[in-house]
Design brief:
This protein is an all-beta fold. About 0% of the residues lie in helices and about 50% in strands. It has no helices and seven strands. The strands form two sheets. Strands 1-2-3-4 form a four-stranded antiparallel β-sheet, with no helix packed on it. Strands 5-6-7 form a three-stranded antiparallel β-sheet, with no helix packed on it.
């Protein structure tokens, strides 16, 4: 278990990548999804949303991130951070 405290509210969902480098995406009540690199224990990229993020997931290939929130919309985000 690791503590990475860059969200400013409760974290609702986390999902690890299944391929490549050890990445995790998290979604929070602060209205952001964050991409984390576990090797450096830091946030690589933040995806701001208008509402709370209640669910996050990686695509099967690991090149896209999907986020969902209380507005019932699934968004597709493409990380720009180098892997």
């Amino acid at each position: 278990m690791k503590r990475m405290a860059e969200h400013s509210s409760y974290v609702n969902s986390c999902c690890p990548s299944r391929r490549g480098v050890p990445l995790v995406v998290s979604g929070s009540d602060d209205g952001t999804a964050k991409l984390w690199d576990l090797r450096v224990k830091g946030c690589l990229q933040t995806f701001p949303e208008k509402y709370q993020v209640t669910s996050v997931a990686f695509s099967d290939a690991g090149d896209k991130i999907y986020t969902g929130g209380i507005e019932n919309v699934v968004r597709n985000c493409r990380p720009t951070a180098s892997r």
